[in-house]
């Protein structure tokens, strides 16, 4: 029996030993393939299903350095890398900081980096304002208030500003400033022996000299010469923001009752024949300006009077500029004569004319009425010692010191008085006498400019509705001219009252202001002619040097 059991025991032991070895092996084999089972839960990257909420954010402006999908700060990932977060893709690569080069594969690659605004990149990006283009030249930023083009530093001293079309914009040399308008006109400014000399073409300009000091105020005189006719006005000088300004000061005032007659409605509207029917300027601007059919008061008559005077001046200035260009200079456009005068073709491409609407004319009429009221108040002041009237209030002269009338919140509508080049949307365009702008800001920038909207504009001038930067100096001169024209119109009304359908006015006598206007300066005409000749010589030399140097 022992011999029988021995083989059986051996078999049992063998089977037991086999099971001891086989069972763990089978268990191990089953455990290894089952381990990946948790992986379906691992695609936590599927969490981007929550991301569909972010596409709504795509409509918002993305801040530089932030992701458009997460709103968190991002960096530039190395190509092919993934985020440290398990299974997530790398954040979108962002554009390199201005002026830097991104790593390969990032949004801004070498040769096409978006450097600092306006910098010259290897990819041909625009030049930085003031950066060097051609030798001795600087290029202006495209979207700034600075006119486009380049500035040439002259070897002989001074500088010249060149428009993109190659025409001279301005010259500064030997204390003389020469400015070319968009329509071919030229303005020259210089100072000689304390006199400020300004020419606005071959047949116009003024000479300004110190005149008088009264009650702590400094006055200057200006003798204007237009087509051989000379007349003088007085201005009160003052400083604002460290810059000098000059405010028109009436040389005399009418009796207060006359201003009331001009301000208040007349008993019945008046039809008035201006006699412009055959005038070339009137036919030329026929689609821009139409006079009132009748006048309920002198304020509306004065509105048409000053608008028509400005349009006549614009027409005459353009005719003079055209003649100067055709003649190769002569005080008009010497630097641009070989190219046909001004920049009318460039201006025309930026033109969307807007006629003088009833609303715009009403705004001008309100400015007229405000001036009439101010002068009436000034004329009604009691006389000071010696019989001289008390100086007109600040609202009238804008010259008691601090703020020019050009920045007075009560004055926002301005009628352009002469050719003026401005910048709109980074491009230069022209305004001419009779255009209307509305000032929209009162705080000058570092260049002493404020913003304005072009309200009414003629063909080839700046487009209507454009926002432009205008210097406070130019606005102040517009306001001065406005006041001068009102006084000229009042003088005409005083002489014509009671005739041609105009109602009879009360007392039209006048009384001198604190500083009556002096007689015209008899040397003014010669001074203007001398300046024109000097400007012609300066410009001829500068044009030759500037274009040779910039070529």
Folded structure, characterized:
The protein has nine helices and 19 strands. The protein is of the alpha+beta class. The protein has a domain at 254-514. The chain has an eleven-stranded antiparallel sheet, sandwiched between helices. It has a four-stranded antiparallel sheet with strand order 13-16-17-18, sandwiched between helices. A two-stranded antiparallel ribbon has the order 12-19. Strand 2 and strand 3 form a beta hairpin. The N and C termini lie far apart (126 Å).
Name the features:
alpha+beta; 11-stranded antiparallel sheet; 4-stranded antiparallel sheet; 551 residues; globular
Average pLDDT works out at 75
User: What series of H and E elements makes up the topology?
Assistant: HEEEEEEEEEEEEHHHHHHEEEEEEHEH
Strand order of the largest sheet: 1-2-3-4-5-6-7-8-9-10-11
Distance between the termini: 126 Å
* Rg calc: 39 Å
Fraction of residues in helix? 25-40%
Low-confidence spans: pLDDT under 50, at least 5 residues?
Answer: 1-5, 23-135, 137-143, 330-341, 344-349, 382-400
Shape: globular
Characterize the largest beta sheet: strand count, sense, and whether it forms a barrel: 11 strands, antiparallel
The helix-and-strand class reads: alpha+beta
Query: How many DSSP E strands?
Result: 19
- Helices, by number, come to 9
Strand content: 15-25%
